[in-house]
Structures are given as structure tokens and as C-alpha cells.
Amino acid sequence: MEYHRDRFVDHSLLVYKGSKLVAVLPANRIDQVLHSHQGLTYGGLVVSPKTKLADVIEICQTLLKHLHDQGITTLHLKEIPSFYSALPSEEMAYILQLVQAGCIRVDTASVIDYRNRLAIQSNRVEGVKKAQKQGLRIEETQDFESFWNEILLPNLEKRHAAKPTHTLEEINSLHAKFPKNIRQFNVYKEDQIVAGATIFQTKTTAHVQYISANEQKQELGALDFLFQELIIKTFADLWYFDFGISNEQQGTKLNKGLSYWKECFGARTYVHRFYEIETANHHLLNNVFL
After folding, report:
1. What is the pLDDT of residue 98?
2. What region does 120 belong to: left with phi over 0, alpha with psi -120 to 50, or beta?
3. Across the chain, where does the E strand assignment appear?
């Protein structure tokens, strides 16, 4: 989180049992509200695999009481999507209903489950055939500059008057710290880059952080060609392939065409849930245990 620390008032919390660290909550504060860190795509409470349900309940009660005592009235919590967990990890779903949390937002992620993978649809295969006829090639590279400057930045500016979440300098810095987890794949026609994708890889999941192609993407089939390769070969030993969300306006709108394109590769819907919790409700966890 340090690369954008100037944009947030960090208020991350460490929870100890005695002298042992048992949980972490990455967070930032805005007035009397604590947010699951707004500089992170995924948030929520992070605990050890050894942590059991009763422990998580006690951790959450301690956290909420601490926040309430500090004058923080509300906690905005975004759950870690289940497909990023290597073990069953839905303790928060139980705890959130106990403290009467309200679900205030839901985003939809298009995800391929490799343990039950659907076939890629024929319309995407047609794109792959176009690419093969055009002699396109895919290359994994350590250089993010050509994708950022020639494809990603111009496309976002032209279509959405927007910029990527990460600057080129930031993505290079992050890649230097996590070279095995941040990977860049480009598509070339002869020596000219025509498309690319930036993938964030975890233990269980390949997450597509950025996708972009030049104006010939339909004619060349560049993205169909790239994603068939990534799904079928490059990341086939993982559990999930996450295309990310297709939502806008705080989850209330769906980019239907983008969602459909992802689903044609066999992706189906998981959700990211966002909750609002009143910290004063910590007392609702007083008598949970029999």
C-alpha cells in the first residue's frame, strides 16, 4: 500500500492475543468512518489459517469496541471474494449478520473455476482463428512501457477520458517488489504491439488487472487469441481465472457487452460484497457463545 500512501489517511489495525499477532485490518480513516483500505481492490479482515470461528468472533468484537472507543462510528468493510481463499473462510458472513451490518454494494466478477471449466464458445474461437491467420504472437515481458504508452493510456483517454489506477512508474515499482505475481503479456503483429493484459497472480487465482487492444482488435482477434492462451495454458494449474468486474457507478450498472465477452470464455459470476457496520453494535457479540 505504500506506493499511494499520500492519498489516504492510513488507519490500519493489528490485533494481538497476548504478544501474538492474530489479525490485520488494512484500513484508512475519513472523519468518523473507517474504510477497508480504499487503495486496495480487496479488503476485509486477514487472519491466519489456524484461526477458528470463535477466535474471529472475538477479534471482530475487540475491533469494533476499539473503534467505538476511538470515536469511529462506522466501519465500511469489503469482503475478500471467496475464490481468493485457499481454505473455507466465510466467518465474516456469519458475524456480519450478528452485528446487523447492512450490505450497501455488490459488484459482480466474471470468474472461471478450473475445477469445473466450461468450454470457450465458438464466437471466441473464431477470433483466435483470425489471429492465427494474421500471424499474431504472444510474448510475456518484463517491460510494461509499450503496453502502457502505446495501448492502455491512449485507449482509456480516448474511450473514457480516464487513466489506469497505476501509473507506469507505480506498476514498475510493484513489479520489482512482486516479480512472480505481476505479469505482463503482449500480443504482436510482426514487431508492433496490438494488445496486452496485465495479470496479478495469487496462490489460487489469476486476476486480470488491465486488458486493452488497439483499434484493430476485432479485425485481428488479438484479445480472443491472448485469453485463450492465458486460460488454457498459462494459468491452467491455478484454481480460478478472474476477469474482474464489469460494473460501474458503485456496482449499480453493468457493462453488458463486457460481461458477455468474459462469459464466452466460460466465466460465471462471483460477487464482491461491501458492508456498513455501526461500531456501537459490538455489544451484540457479547452472548454468542453457549
Report:
1. 98
2. beta
3. 13-17, 20-25, 27-30, 33-36, 46-47, 74-78, 102-113, 137-141, 182-189, 192-201, 205-213, 240-245, 247-248, 253-254, 268-278
Report the C-alpha gap between 35 and 92 in whole angstroms: 16
Note the pTM of the prediction, 2 decimals: 0.93
CA-CA distance, 79 to 85, in Å (whole number)?
A: 11
Residue 107's nearest CA partner among 262, 274, 268, 259 is 274
Interval 8-26: pLDDT, tens:
999 999 999 999 999 999 9
Alpha helices in the chain, H assignment, sequence order: 53-69, 91-98, 122-133, 145-146, 153-160, 168-177, 217-220, 222-229, 256-263
- pLDDT band at residue 64 using 50, 70 and 90 as cut-offs: very high
Nearest to 61 by CA among 288, 283, 287: 283
What are the tens digits of pLDDT across the range 212-242?
999 888 889 999 999 999 999 999 999 999 9
Nearest to 151, CA basis, from 107, 90, 197: 197
Return the SS3 of 80: coil
| CA atoms in the 13 A half-sphere facing the CB of 148 | 16
Is pLDDT of 161 > 90? no
- What is the rounded CA–CA span in Å between residue 36 and residue 28? 7
Q: Which residues does 195 contact at the CB level (< 8 Å), separation at least 6? A: 151, 186, 187, 212, 213, 214, 217, 220, 222, 223, 226
Tell me the pairing of strands 240-245 and 247-248.
unpaired
Sequence-separated (6 or more) residues with CB below 8 Å from residue 85 = 204
Mean pLDDT of 63-68: 98
Please choose, from the candidates 106, 80, 112, the residue with its C-alpha nearest in 3D space to the C-alpha of residue 247: 106
The overall average pLDDT reported for the chain is 95
